[in-house]
What does this fold into?
Amino acid sequence: TTALLRCFPCEWLCGGCPVPPTAPGALPPAMAPSRRRLPPRTFHSYLPRSHRTYSCVHCRAHLARHEELISKSFQGSHGRAYLFNSVVNVGCRPAEQRLLLTGLHSVADIFCQSCHTTLGWKYEEAFESSQKYKEGKFIIEASHMVKENGWD
It folds into this structure.
């Protein structure tokens, strides 16, 4: 005997679809969504859980330890930004010269290696002597970061 069940893909009462009567609402195997297994997200570097850290707001990849923070008073392309001595789990695009608020700099955009979101930039070279302290440092926009581990 064939039970008539409502076939959700075609919205009809159907006896021809191989939907087992014990699984009402289940899709036939040919119409079931594929269950692609995504590889687990792994980061290149994990920061110690005992330290206050900044992570990517989009994928939670670790970005920097609080101890690497130099200043919170920078301006990014889309708002407030932080200057860091060093960061982890970021990639660099090719450097280009940009006229920023503090003068001409050679900068390379940086992105999260996990989710590929552009986070800010790295100062490659500063052309004004008063700005040389920024060379080799990183800007990450506050809107792309979240605080984790031990913040009160």
Remarks:
- The chain is about 0% helix and 45% strand.
- Residues 1-12, 18-23, 27-35, 37-41 have pLDDT under 50 and may be disordered.
- The two ends are 65 Å apart (CA to CA).
